[in-house]
Design goal:
Blueprint lengths: L4 H18 L18 H16 L7 H13 L4 H4 L2
Length: 86
């Protein structure tokens, strides 16, 4: 699936400016842990939930991201429900 240019630009910025702050060594992971290693999925999930709670007051866990993406998609494309069933 091709990403919109805005998403690609955002990812490029992240990879160039912010990701090196997570680890100075090369890593295949988008969000690497210390030393470029793979992050613990459980710990990273908890961290994301705590960050969202702290910044917004909204209780959200990573499994809700799919439902949120579906809502945003249907708000923008009400006729696009066929995409969600895939």
């Amino acid at each position: 699936m091709e990403l919109p240019k805005e998403c690609v630009d955002f990812l490029d910025l992240y990879l160039e400016v912010y990701r090196p702050r997570l680890t100075p060594v090369p890593s295949p992971w988008l969000f690497p842990g210390y030393g470029g290693e793979r992050r613990s999925t459980v710990c990273f999930s908890r961290y994301i939930s705590k960050l969202i709670w702290r910044e917004t007051g909204i209780k959200m866990h990573v499994h809700l991201f799919r439902q949120l993406a579906v809502k945003f998609h249907l708000d923008a494309h009400p006729e696009g429900s066929w995409v969600i069933s895939r």
